[in-house]
Design a protein that fits this description.
This protein is α/β, with parallel strands linked by helices. It is built from 19 helices and 15 strands. The protein has 2 domains: 236 residues, Rossmann fold; 210 residues, Glycogen Phosphorylase B (Rossmann fold), CATH 3.40.50. The strands form 3 sheets. A 7-stranded parallel sheet has the order 3-2-1-4-5-6-7, with helices on both faces. Strands 11-10-8-12-14-15 form a 6-stranded parallel sheet. α2 links the parallel β2 and β3. It is globular.
Length: 461
């Protein structure tokens, strides 16, 4: 086994399915941790998906600018092949048999990246046999990596930190073949996370959720927000300016009708289980367009001074809304752009748009805080937030950049949007950001918090 090489650098084995050159929201947390960990005494060995196996689609494409951001940084990269039986799955889907296979063989078909994760487990075991690691770090999803982290820490005695970007069994967007399968996953989630030395979540609300879910005696849970990289905003060239008031959104929206209908005729669809926790329509363009329609009807002259700039993949259902409302003259759809170009659009905007899912029923404040919030804060722009009470609203308010409207009240959305446009016309659309708070959310500062946790668990080993 290879020992430490005489310097004071500690080693962490970092398992992540999402990593450059893949682009998209899930990639940046892992890439920025990797970029900055060596500044705090930790050298990562990143074990990730083989580039040629990455399923590229409209929302997640290769982004070489993220890969270039890591040039010259102190880390090792190990790519692992995916052996998911894609042809078999396609055949099952075409024959209509996949729901049955999913139900009966859930142990293997429960997650798309399960087969990659099991290959990653084998690769991690080889790496641990070859060299010394002081800690293991996983970031999920995929949640198969919780199984990998649990097994590695129990086999090797190396402390493991489980980073959770989203919850698993409390996730309203996930679907299970039946409630029994959901309960099975709940049991596995508790079992696997119970082996972690530390658990990391991305919001305070998510931390509280896991504390309740895991119960007494759970591992210590910590919050490390998603953040922004100061270097991404240094010397950035703003995108071409538009003379109109420009409201920009980066990233993807939910599809209209994402929540499945319970009246499906098939038995497989009737027994599927989903946590009914969110109104997904509030993460589409529907309510913003409703507010715009109210405003344009009240004040038609405002329309000629308004521009909605959409950076990121826009699915067909939201694209159809542009046509349905007749907003082709005020909406620009740019599609997926490399991250550096997306940042250029942020800094060129007059204001930024943030929609978020709204909890249904008496589920309490939302624990969600989209990763784009933090790059919005770095741009120091006013943010039109169609967000519920909860973590996202709290962050925007504390940063002093918020213009918040009721996410489903078109009259209220029109009122707030009208106020922003009038301020823009008068030259008074400004914010007074809380600089200390915003600077605490830089990727470098947040990586320092992760390094502190790694130091803690490696010392106690």
């Amino acid at each position: 086994m290879e020992k430490h090489n005489g310097n004071s650098m500690k080693r962490v084995l970092f398992l992540t399915s999402y990593f450059p050159p893949l682009g998209g929201a899930g990639v940046q947390r892992a890439s920025k941790f990797t970029k900055y960990l060596s500044l705090f005494g930790w050298q990562p060995t990143v074990l990730t998906f083989r580039t040629e196996d990455q399923p590229i689609h409209m929302e997640y494409q290769l982004d070489r600018s993220l890969e270039e951001d890591l040039t010259g940084k102190d880390y090792h990269l190990v790519q692992v092949k995916d052996t998911r039986p894609a042809r078999l799955i396609v055949a099952l889907e075409r024959s209509g048999l996949f729901p049955l296979a999913w139900f009966v063989f859930y142990r293997w078909f429960w997650e798309q990246r399960y087969f990659w994760a099991m290959n990653a487990l084998k690769a991690a075991r080889r790496l641990i046999a070859e060299r010394t690691f002081d800690a293991i770090l996983t970031t999920s999803g995929p949640y198969s990596l919780l199984k990998v982290g649990c097994r590695l820490t129990r086999e090797s005695g190396i402390p493991w930190i489980a980073d959770l970007r989203d919850p698993w069994t409390a996730e309203a967007r996930r679907v299970w073949p039946s409630k029994a399968h959901w309960l099975y996953d709940c049991r596995r989630e508790r079992q696997w996370l119970g082996a972690a030395s530390r658990i990391v979540t991305v919001t305070e609300g998510m931390k509280d959720l896991y504390a309740r879910f895991l119960g007494p005696g759970h591992p210590s849970i910590h919050v490390i927000h998603n953040g922004y990289d100061i270097e991404d905003f240094e010397n950035v060239v703003p995108a071409a300016a538009d003379a109109r008031f420009t409201l920009t959104h980066t990233g993807a929206f939910s599809k209209l009708g994402d929540v499945e209908k319970s009246q499906s005729a098939s038995l497989a669809d009737r027994i599927k289980f989903r946590l009914q926790g969110y109104d997904f329509s509030t993460h589409t363009l529907m309510h913003l367009f409703g507010g715009m329609a109210v405003l344009f009807s009240k004040r038609p002259e405002v329309r000629t001074d308004f521009h909605l700039n959409l950076v990121g993949y826009l699915d067909e259902s939201n694209m159809n809304l542009v046509q349905k409302f007749g907003f082709e003259d005020v909406v620009t759809v740019r599609g997926y752009l490399p991250h550096n170009e997306a940042v250029s659009n942020l800094v060129a905007a007059d204001a930024l748009f943030l929609p978020l899912y709204v909890p249904l029923g008496d589920t309490g404040p939302s624990y969600r805080a989209s990763g784009k919030i933090f790059e919005y804060l770095a741009a120091r722009k006013p943010v039109l937030g169609l967000v519920p009470d909860g973590n996202a609203k709290d962050i925007l308010t504390r940063a002093r950049v918020a213009f918040v409207a009721d996410p489903r009240d078109h009259q209220d959305i029109a009122r707030v949007l009208e106020d922003m446009i009038d301020r823009y016309r008068a030259g008074t659309l400004r914010v007074d950001p809380d600089e200390d708070y915003i600077q605490s959310l830089s990727r470098r500062a947040l990586t320092a918090k992760l390094a502190e946790l790694l130091d803690e668990v490696s010392i106690s080993r």
